[in-house]
Amino acid sequence: MPLTLSKICTGIMPSATLRLNAIVAELRAQGQDIISLAAGEPDFDTPANIVSAANKAMAEGGTHYTAVSGLPQLRQAICDCLFEEKGLVYQKANIIVGTGAKQVLYEALRAIVNQGDEVILPAPCWLSYAEMVGMVGGKAVLVAADDMNNYVPKMHDIAKKVTPRTKVILINSPNNPTGAVWNMEALRGIAEIAQDKDIWIISDEIYEKMVYGGARHISIASLSPDAKERTIVVSGLSKAYAMTGWRLGYAAGPASVIKEMDAYQSHATGNANSIAQFAGVEALKGPQDSVHAMVRAFERRRALMLDCIKKVPGVTYRAPQGAFYVLLNVSACIGKRYLNTLISDDTVFSELLLQHARVSVVPGAPFFAPSHVRLSYAVSEEKIVEGIRRMAQFVQEIID
Ligand SMILES: Cc1ncc(COP(=O)(O)O)c(C=O)c1O
Question: Where a domain ends, among 285, 318, 349?
């Protein structure tokens, strides 16, 4: 029998940004100064008190296996935060800690979705969702939200996509890549559809602390006892505490689901890194000043980036209320030429921008936002100003 590979794995779409990353590396190796507005993580270092807690854990033997679902004191700290910040009452049995929000998201889908079940994804959305749904044998059903509605889908569009196979609606507010923060009305709409049709909700709240200009993050699980019973809240420490490399995320939900996620994780990876978990307790329980300082810095940079973008001709955008991204509509450039190259889509736009203006951005298509690019303001103010200046010049040459 020939050596064949798994259909699920060979069907996974490799990251669309890999090619662009390779070009960035090549140009940098040639000594070119590239400004990256592509970052998906805070540019701040992990706060010192958290690093000290990790050092202490290493020195004092916190280097062994922990419970699969995480240290009890970390799960308790998560329960305390969920209560203080969202009014959600959970016990330790309702919490699982994993290797990043990514792992627990995958496990939540794994625990709920059977072969052929449908998962509704309001789009634009983070590029890993659709792949994860495919990896557990489900079918991603996208519901497009347009910028006219601030990138929040209309509830009748979601309701129309519900079928007897619909198992989950996966929402993400604040959103990557749009920066949209869903209001109470939208969340109520989802909760009502879910209750009416008996569907699970997975709510990815990883950017919960990054909200600006009076916007408020609301967890859908806090809307009603019914919403809480059918929701798996996913979050983590990566973005809020600048801990992306530590790999620490968690899910909170009904004990029945958490138990299955725990069983899966026990065989797949085991506990999240023990040292990171001790550091995580300090992150959640220790002083929060560095988080506030970081969010204030993002708020300033967001204002600066939006100000600079006003000078880029032909592009449009919706002012984001959360996360650290701006989704820019570059459709005015699609179908035009730069030098001799046809800009057939946002990926070609991004490649040309990188090669000729030395600015790296992320194409929108993998986020189901064709003809858009995602800019990140998790970079210094100088880089924002210079990056957008270069971009404005590049776009001007295209549309002239
Ligand atoms: C919307 C969204 N969810 C989840 C994650 C994954 O977070 P983590 O680094 O904790 O796995 C990311 C990371 O970029 C994200 O943008």
Answer: 285
- Mark whether 174 and 85 lie in a shared domain: yes
Instruction: Give domain status of residue 117, yes or no.
Output: yes
Distance 42 CA to ligand 1 centre (A): 12
Both structure tokens of 18: 């890999």
Amino acid of residue 150: N
Domain range for 70 is 48-285
**282-309 pLDDT tens trace:** 999 999 999 999 999 999 999 999 999 9
> How far does residue 28's CA lie from ligand 1's centre (Å)?
26
CATH number at residue 298: 3.90.1150.10
Cβ of 100 closer than 6 Å to ligand 1, yes or no, is: yes
Question: What is the enclosing helix (H) or strand (E) of 392?
Answer: helix 381-399
pLDDT in tens, 64-73: 999 999 999 9
**Token pair belonging to 63:** 């280097």
- 159 and 280 part of one domain: yes
- Which region holds residue 103: left if phi is over 0, alpha if psi is between -120 and 50, else beta? alpha
Residue 244 CA, closest ligand 1 atom number: 9
Neighbours of 337 (CB within 10 A): 11
Q: Give the model confidence (pLDDT) of 169-192 as tens digits.
A: 999 999 999 999 999 999 999 999
Cα-based torsion angle of the residue sequence 204, 44, 103, 10 in order, rounded to the nearest 10 degrees:
100
Residue 138 burial by CB count (10 A; 0-12/13-18/19+): exposed, middle or buried? buried
CA 335–ligand 1 middle distance (angstroms): 33
